Every structure is written in structure tokens, then in C-alpha cells.
UniProtKB/TrEMBL annotation:
The keyword Transferase applies. The gene is TBLA0D05200. The keyword Iron-sulfur does not apply. SUPFAM superfamilies: S-adenosyl-L-methionine-dependent methyltransferases. This is FAM86 N-terminal domain-containing protein. One of its GO terms (biological process) is positive regulation of translational termination. The lineage of its organism: Eukaryota, Fungi, Dikarya, Ascomycota, Saccharomycotina. Gene3D superfamilies: Vaccinia Virus protein VP39. GO terms for cellular component: cytosol. Pfam families: Methyltransf_16 (PF10294). GO terms for molecular function: protein-lysine N-methyltransferase activity. InterPro entries: Methyltransf_16 (IPR019410), SAM-dependent_MTases_sf (IPR029063).
Amino acid sequence: MFDPLDLYTPEEPPKDIHVVLERRQLLENEKSEDNILESYSNGDDEDYSMLSPLQVLDLPPPQTTPADILETTLILLGPSTQLNFNNEVPSIDRSEVTTEQLDELCHWNIINKPYSYLTTKDSLLTRLPSLSTQCSSGSPVKLLSYYTSILHRCENNPELTQLSTIVAKRIAELCGRTAQPSMTRDFRINNLEKTIKLYEPALTSDNLGHKTWGSSLVLANRIPTLENCSGSSKPRVLELGSGTGLVGITYTISHSNEFSQVFLTDLPEIVPNLRTNAKLNDLSTHNSVIADVLDWTNHDSFVEKYGDIQFDIILIADPIYSPQHPIWLMDTVKRFLKKNGEVHLELPIRTKYNKERETLWRIIEEKGLEVLEEDYEQGIDDWGQVEYIYKRLAYPSTN
């Protein structure tokens, strides 16, 4: 069959045709990139992106993304500063990340993942912490897989040491409270304008005092409206087993006009962090705040240092962790409480410590203290909802 095209001989393409095609493709890429950048600079998709659910797949690929882009992403995936044991609201304050790093990450996402919903600074500062919170409280498997892929990339590569350090920290944060690294929490207390910041070192079984427990928050919420019933114009306040210092710090801030002297006390290994938290809340040079060791089993060193002093108010939150604690605690209260002073005690109602609580109630009565007020309260901590009991104690009035 005759085909007219058989008589047609096509012209040979110029030898430099590949150069022409490369230049054409380059121009098209530049035009496409300019269009993408222009559309995002106009904020065309910003409102929609903030409403769309963020997925782990929206993150930069772990194996092919430049290390500096991954580092910025991982920093922003860090946990939000927790507020009263609640981290649902993402933190906007990301002082670890510079404006230049945010700009670079935005630009990279616009070009390489334009539909990732992470193409503006606002989305980076809110959506990434939200994703971290969402995965931590739900199913962390996909995010954990993303982190381990980055960690695998860092193996045997000394140039990625910084990236490896950051991703290892993110992995620890997904492994539960007991595995989490050190953190700083925010606490907002009822009737107190100032937000209290507390640093918590990594939790270990032998340093439970490095953690803020829910009973401290519940008791702290009572402190700003606490009245000084002793009649002293300069009341002395003693917190026993201060831990991270939430209760005592709350008293110092909320009663600053009373010229009170507040002692934050705990074991030797806990006190350095107590001082850190006093400094964190601008109390390190406060003449009325003292953080020091007070051993419940031997008061001698404390008395030698501060004299034979007694206190108008004693604050205690969650002090019972062993069968001996009720005895030691009440011996200490007996030693340091003024005859017209008051004790404010907050305890979680843990089934495991029913016997210790009953021992404590018995010893309180044996020491001659009366229960002036008792209340049951609900609160939360890192392990969920907890019921607490509050007691206000004092010696019988001699009037």
C-alpha cells in the first residue's frame, strides 16, 4: 500500500538540539517556580491549608531532604510548652528557630511539597507542634517511623551528628512521660496573673521530686486566696517536700505584699532544681525566698543553719511514698509549726497508699492537730484524672 509519507524525508535536527531543549525546560521550571512563589506570597491557599488535617506525609522526606531543612522541621516538631499538664494548644514561641531558618523551610516546602500545608511561617509554628501533640496523644507509630528513618540516615555519618541528636530527642518524647527528656512547663494559677514556669529534669525512679505532681497544682490554686491566720505581719512559710516548687513559688508571688519569708525545702538532690525554678520565676535574688535541704529524719543541720525557728504556715503536697513517711512528716510538722500556725495538706487518693493515708490521719490526731477544713477535689497530671483530698490543720484554739 502506498503511503505518501514514504516520499518525505525529515530534516536532521540541529546537533545542538539538546541544548535548546535543556534551556527551554529550564525556562519553564523557572516560570513554574515563580508562579508557585507568587501564589503563596498572595496567600491563596493559606486559609484552606490551616483547616486541612496535617499528616506525616506532609513532612519533608527523611532520606532526600537537606539536613538543615530536616533539623528545622524536627525542632518545630518538639512538644509544645505544657500548660497545667495540658499540651493541646501549640506553642508559638520557638526561640530555637531563627527567621532565616523559617524562611528557608517555607521556600523548600513551596518548591518541593507545595501541597503540604506547611508553606507559611504561621503554619510552621502552629501546624507542626499540633501534629506532634496529635501523634503523642493518639497513635505515634507513623511519626515514630518518620523519626527512625531519619535516625537510620544519620548512622555512621559524622556530618549528621546534630540531626541525630535532635531526632533522638523527638523519639524519646514519643515514648511516654517516664522516657521523656527534660522540659519546661507553664502553670496558670487561679487568681494569679503571672504564669509560673517550672523546669523538670528527665524523670528517674530515684528522683521523683524532679516532677511536678497534680496535687501541687490543686493546692497551688488555693494559695492566692489563702489567709494568714497567725496574725503575724511577716509570716514565715515552710513548704515540705517542695519538689519543683510550684506551691511555694505560688505563695511567694501571690503574697509578695506580706513581706513573708518562704522556705522551699527538699532532699539534697532536689534542691538545685528548686533554686533553678526560683531563678526561672525571677525569685533568685528575692530576699524572702530560701531553697534548702530539710531532712525529715534529722532536723539538726537545718536548725543549726537557720536557728530554732517555727512557721506560721506549712504547705505540703503529695508527701507519702513509703510506710515511714507519715511518721517522719508529722514529726517535722510538730517540730516547726507555731502553736497558732496552720498546715495546708493535699494528697492524691491512691489505692496503693490507703494504709499510709490511714496512718497519717491517725498520727495527725495523736500530735494534737485538728482538721479545720476538708475537701475532695478532682485534678489531672501526666497520668490522667486523679481525685485529691485537702485538709487544713491547726492546734486547738486556746481562746
